[in-house]
Amino acid sequence: MRNVIAAVMASTLAFSALSQADEVVTSVNWHPAEDNSLRNGQGHMFDGISLTEHQRQQMRDLMQRARHDRPPVNVSEVEAMHRLVTAEKFDEAAVRAQAEKMAEEQVNRQVEMAKVRNQMYRLLTPEQQAALNENHQQRMEQLRDVARMQQGSNVNLFSSNTRSNQ
């Protein structure tokens, strides 16, 4: 069971690292109908916001700099996790240490992306910022609804498991 959990964790971390790396390039979705492929994190942060051509160019420049300045995804860390997951004997301490190292790299990437998004946000007019904040509130309400549904299904699962174990 631990090996399965570690395998899932390793693949999730690897996917997260790769999607975060791709997010720098595509985080500003100028025309939602043209590219709906990115829907993780805040990749859709600027959906529905009408930007001037000058703003678009400034944001492209910011993304280009961010893409150039960021360190590449550390493939050796993903490979190290894979070796730990597929080892003959599971070493929880080593997996935990590797996962923490990978998580720290992920945090650093997210901080850099937040910095770029903040710079992009500052390029918006007050009206555009208000529209962006309104869109964010709508997404947060949708997320709260999903969380409530998940919590409700977890309670139902727990109570049915408790009854079946009695």
UniProtKB/TrEMBL annotation:
It comes from Kluyvera genomosp. 3. It holds the Pfam family LTXXQ. Belongs to the CpxP/Spy family. This is Cell-envelope stress modulator CpxP. It comes from the Bacteria. It is found in: Periplasm. Keywords: Periplasm, Signal. GO terms for cellular component: outer membrane-bounded periplasmic space. GO terms for molecular function: unfolded protein binding. Residues 1-21 form the signal peptide.
